[in-house]
Amino acid sequence: MDVRIGIQNSPRELGFESAQTPEEVKSQVAAALAGDAKSLEFIDSKGTVFLVPAAALAYVEISGEEARRVGFVA
C-alpha cells in the first residue's frame, strides 16, 4: 500500500510503500491526532523509519494495493 504525507510549510510530500493495512495507518494517524502525541512513526516496506511531527501534519493519503500489469493493455 502507498502512503503519501503532506507536511505544513514543506514544498515536498513524503511518500513510501508500507506493509501495514490502510485501516492500521488510519487508526494510527487518528490516535495521534486525538491524543497528545508529538510525532507519528511510520515504517516502510524496507524497514526505514519515518518520524513526522503531529502538529505539522497537513494530510495523509492512503492508497490500496493495485495489481501490477504486465504487457500491453488493450
Would you kindly provide a written description of the structure presented here, covering whatever features stand out?
This is DUF3107 domain-containing protein. InterPro entries: DUF3107. Pfam families: DUF3107. It comes from Agromyces salentinus. The mean pLDDT is 87. The relative contact order is 0.30. The protein has a 3-stranded antiparallel β-sheet, covered by helices on one side. The chain is α+β, with helices and mostly antiparallel strands and 74 residues long. The chain has one helix spanning 22-34; strands at 2-7, 13-17, 39-43, 49-53, 57-63. It is elongated and about 50 Å long.
Summary keywords:
alpha+beta; 74 residues; 18% helix; DUF3107; DUF3107 domain-containing protein
Topology record:
Blueprint: E1 2-7, E2 13-17, H1 22-34, E3 39-43, E4 49-53, E5 57-63
Antiparallel strand pairs: 1-2, 1-5, 3-4
Organism: Agromyces salentinus
InterPro entries: DUF3107 (IPR021456)
Pfam families: DUF3107
Helix fraction bin: 10-25%
**Category by helix and strand content:** alpha+beta
Strand order in the largest sheet: 2-1-5
Per DSSP E runs of 2 or more residues, the count of β-strands stands at: 5
Biggest sheet layout: 3 strands, antiparallel
Tally the helices: 1
Overall body shape: elongated
> What separation lies between the terminal Cα atoms?
26 Å
Order of helices and strands: EEHEEE
Low-confidence stretches are: none
Percent in strands: 35-45%
Rg over CA atoms, rounded to whole Å, is: 14 Å
